[in-house]
Design a protein that fits this description.
The structure is a homodimer.
Chain A (H helix, E strand, L loop, with lengths): L5 H8 L3 H9 L6 H14 L5 H8 L4 E6 L5 H16 L3 E6 L4 H13 L4 E4 L6 H9 L4 E4 L10 E4 L1 H14 L5 E5 L5 H16 L9 E3 L4 H13 L6 E4 L2 H13 L9 E5 L13 E4 L2 H17 L9 E3 L2 E3 L9
Parallel strand pairs in A: 1-2, 1-3, 3-4, 4-5, 5-11, 6-7, 6-8, 8-9, 9-10
Antiparallel strand pairs in A: 10-12
Chain A binds a DNA duplex (30 and 30 nucleotides) through α2 and α4.
DNA sequence: ACATTCGGTGTCATCGGTGACATGGCGGAT
DNA sequence: ATCCGCCATGTCACCGATGACACCGAATGT
């Protein structure tokens, strides 16, 4: 039950622990005879090397820390999966944690990652507190941001061109004829939110459209926040004719609010959102969305991290900007 | 950069490492003066105890292994989140891995868990190979299954009453007037699939309805499998008037096939599925679903594991059967 | 024939904490 | 005053694997 140790194997094979290690890791040559004795001893004892001991001895855990806002959010699930697939291919495992965008929880998670000496961390969530993150980065821990990065942290990021993507989406609405647009945005402190809002504003400005201040809602993230924000938007007088949502959860909440208000999409109001979901094509009406390549973002992030780990000289890797995909469906139409 | 060790702290505070440990873990009493010196040394050096070393020394990693079929699947995401929330409350972290229902990948994941000496594992996926799992269980590693369990493994499980839930759903369809039902099931080797199919069959049998063999499709899991299975069902002559889907992904695929075939739900065919999704209420038409309490399942699983870890005497915990929720929406109607 | 090299193997300190045990000092009981 | 006991603290072996180093014997070079 207790699991055999390398000493047990060595004893059974009549060799030293060093020889066992050598056979196992195939590093230095070992005579065929001893190799044979060792491998059969390993098999007989069902010996499994203790990764904890190895980690302590080698100073490497082969663990990647992944900090997300909420692993239950399909977007982060995809990211996690992409990261995991790249990680396992390199014999790494993934330690995940959800921060819920709570600064305290985020801090505890990072502290845990540090204490466990994960080899590198990927972050997709960030409660503003970048001091903590900078301290971790300063220890030399390879680090990569996904989807967003606090302004003052000197680490690479994997993201899409949020400004351009939002600009394009907003232009699409404007070309449809909308002149009174609203945006359900994220917390102002979030870099992504600022970028998307900027793209939105630029598109409006370029067409001489004024965005009413009350048409920009900085909702709390999550479906409930989206619902509340949409309720407020619908109550506006005049009511905006098109709404752009900052992410998938917000959109789900917005959808609920629209339904509850008895408003039809796109007849009564047009809706467009960041983050595609597998069911969007089947919603009534199919939802137009800006799809982020979540899986690839996770994979790229892992690639950056693994690369940094294998070449410790350490030039800071460049950001990776992935293409987003604007998927036009039927949730937007010209205003009445 | 390299991180201070307990010896550095001890040296700076002018005490022994044991005293530092005692101050940190608050176990045995330490004089105020020394406590003071130690805490300030800890602060000055920004000392963070090395969890790897502690794990090796104590034989506990405070790590829970979670094996899911696919962390990108929202159902498993919810499970993971529930498990995580319960875990962090007890100062545990979660190591996740996706098996993709691939026996080899599952085996490697379990081997990694074992090598890392996680304190316990939760499994929601199972490629039939239970020998491997039994071997792990035999080492005394606390273990819990979520959603499904291989028949011959003596470990507790957290699940819903699949047979009853499916029976109820099938009855609902029958009471609507359907007499020709189909089921898009999962792989026969999966216990859950067998149970759900049994409930389905019992409901039919009780009403004197014969289920045509070709109406039970054992699809490959995943949206693509669901689409293929549904395409086959739609091609049947006569075409069944109602279909019950084994899980959320299968349903998404089925939805796509129905759309592609130009068939209307529920007018042309009724659809009902296991696993609810946040967007189901907004789909055209809103999808009737059997909701599993995924988050709670994760939490219960963690509770069982943590309990087993804190009371090592080890009575085998009983299964936890959670209620499912049958959410009737509009995707089912009487047959024409 | 002797020095040199090298392949194959063992020894042991080390990674950072932990806890059993040893030690020393002080107060209270007799 | 003496002994006991307890509290506070230090010492050190240990968890399991690793790798630097030492070592031995055989093959090669001159």
């Amino acid at each position: 039950m207790a699991g055999a140790s390398i000493r047990d194997v060595a004893r059974l094979a009549g060799v030293s622990t060093a020889t066992v290690a050598r056979v196992l890791r195939g590093t230095t040559p070992v005579s065929d005879q001893l190799r044979e004795r060792v491998t059969s001893a390993v098999a007989e004892l069902r010996y499994i090397p203790n990764a904890v001991a190895r980690s302590l001895s080698r100073g490497r855990t082969h663990l990647l820390g992944l900090l997300v806002a909420d692993i239950a959010n399909p977007f982060f699930g995809e990211v996690a999966r992409g990261l995991e697939d790249a990680a396992v291919a390199a014999e790494y495992q993934v330690l995940v944690g959800s921060s819920d965008l709570d600064a305290g929880r985020e801090r505890r998670l990072l502290a845990a990652f540090e204490a466990r000496t994960v080899d590198a961390v990927a972050l997709t969530s960030t409660a503003a507190d970048s001091a903590e993150i900078n301290r971790l980065a300063a220890t030399g821990m390879p680090m990569v941001f996904i989807d967003r990065r606090p302004a003052d942290v000197p680490a690479p990021a994997v993201l899409i061109d949020n400004e351009a993507a939002t600009h394009r989406a907003a232009r699409y609405l404007i070309e449809l004829g909308h002149t009174d647009l609203a945006m359900i945005s994220g917390p102002r402190s979030m870099a992504t939110a600022a970028q998307r809002l900027a793209g939105f504003r630029r598109a409006c400005a370029e067409s001489g459209i004024t965005v009413r201040p009350e048409c920009v809602r900085e909702g709390h993230l999550g479906a409930a926040g989206g619902e509340a924000a949409m309720r407020e938007v619908l109550a506006l007088d005049p009511r905006p004719t098109a709404v752009l949502s900052f992410n998938n959860l917000l959109a789900v909440g917005a959808l609920a609010a629209v339904r509850a208000a008895g408003v039809r999409i796109p007849a009564g109001i047009s809706l467009l959102t960041f983050d595609d979901m597998p069911l969007f094509p089947f919603v009534d009406p199919p939802i137009t969305a800006i799809a982020q390549p979540a899986y690839d973002m996770g994979r790229e992030a892992a690639a950056i991290l693994l690369d940094a780990l294998s070449t410790p000289d350490g030039v800071r890797p460049a950001d990776v900007v992935l293409p987003s995909d604007f998927r036009i469906r039927e949730s937007c139409a010209p205003p009445r």
